Amino acid sequence: MTVSGHHAHASSNGGDCVEAAANPTATGVVPVRDSKRPNGPVLTVSPSAWTGLVALARSSDI
């Protein structure tokens, strides 16, 4: 599965980062991976679960 598209803001400074596919509606899932391991495992979640996770991360002090 190809993952490319949205990088975490921290990716520009070498921090811990994730990437999520730019167009999840094409497959019905959002593939997510560690940006430092592009050939590593991919976690797939539903678009609604990804939206909820992003909202939680934006609202939290993490």
Largest sheet: 4 strands, antiparallel
Shape: flat
In total, how many beta strands? 4
Radius of gyration over all CA atoms, rounded: 12 Å
Order of helices and strands: EEEEH
Strand line-up of the largest beta sheet = 1-2-3-4
Structural class: alpha+beta
The helix fraction, in percent, is 10-25%
Question: Strand fraction band?
Answer: 15-25%
Q: Termini distance?
A: 29 Å
Query: Unreliable runs, pLDDT <50, ≥5 residues?
Result: none
| Rounded mean pLDDT score | 75
Question: Count of DSSP helices?
Answer: 1
Write the layout of secondary structure elements.
Blueprint (H helix, E strand, L loop, with lengths): L4 E3 L10 E4 L8 E5 L8 E3 L1 H13 L3
Antiparallel strand pairs: 1-2, 2-3, 3-4
Task: Summarize, please.
The chain is α+β, with helices and mostly antiparallel strands. It is 21% helix and 24% strand.
Describe the structure.
A hairpin with an 8-residue loop joins strand 3 (30-34) and strand 4 (43-45). A 4-stranded antiparallel beta sheet has the order 1-2-3-4. The longest helix is centred in the last third of the chain and has 13 residues, at 47-59. It starts with a strand and ends with a helix. The protein is 21% helix and 24% strand. The chain contains 1 helix and 4 strands; from the N terminus they run E-E-E-E-H.
